[in-house]
Amino acid sequence: MTLYQLTTIEQKGYGMVARTTISPGTLIVAEEPLFSLPTAVFSDEALTVIKHPESTLNTIIATAVKALSREKQVAFLELHNSKTKLGVFLGIWQTNAFELGSENGEDAVFEVASRFNHSCFPNAAYSWNDNIHRMEIRATKAIPEGMEIIMSYLSFEELIQPCGMRRAILQERYGFICGCHACASPGNARSIAHRTELAVLEGELASGGFSPGMDAAKMMKNLRRMLGLFLQENFEAQLGRVYYDAFRLAIGFGDQARASAFMELCIKTRCFYLGTGLKDYTRNKELVRRPQSHHMFRVLGNKWETKLAMKEKEGSDCFDEWLWGRAGK
After folding, report:
1. 50 Cα distance to chain centroid
2. What does the pLDDT read at residue 40?
3. In a designed cystine with 153, which of 27, 102, 118, 234 is the match (CB 3.0 to 4.6 A)?
4. Closest Cα to residue 93, out of 80, 104, 105, 75?
5. What are phi and psi for residue 91, nearest 5 degrees?
């Protein structure tokens, strides 16, 4: 049974709604692209050497569309175009194209995946599965029957920016003003506070870096706080980044037991919300077994030194307290 259906959404045009209740982690869509093109074709560098870039790019995309079946051509042309001034083909492409993973160097449009609307407070997330060459969309929250399935078009760094900045980015890229739970006032006061705090914590993490003289306990405490804020702001698809940073901090000080546990949680949450098709999946599984093989092992010191055998089992009564024990009080 197809879990979604295309329908009209008030003030949005079309969107996807759940045909039945969808549980967190459920795979909603696994779809091959209509077609893909090299990201470099649309780079600023490439456009500077093209005499008539919009005309040229429309031709490139039109050629790719004409190679599709008649049914797929219609599917492409029915996608929303928020940039009509760029022409039909380039406008639709710029409105709907996804990056196929940061290392692939390609963007693509999809018949189904390109129909899902944006929210800064999403209940689903997308990821590119390079193993099967498909875009996958999974539920990150329970989605009741009849509720719209929404995902974020923004990066994590953009999601924690102030509402006005997020809206400006979305209006520039996609031609709409976001009215989601995190953007629509006055009900977004809590979300504003959470994202402001996340921006501060993320800034401290970026500026402080990982160095021998750092306040490691404070950094670990900040990561634990970020984890809680992620859950409150529907950032479940981003949980892996917190666990990965906690892994790096732990292994940097020689704590093999907690590093292995953090990496295990990193893999578990990423697989649940994003699938197993991410490029670093195999390498990260090896780091659970041999965390000391990571290049950061002991580079910060050895004050947290533990052996892998000291690892607590997830689900035990004291696991959470043990896991975050380095954060102090």
Report:
1. 33
2. 85
3. 118
4. 80
5. -65, -45
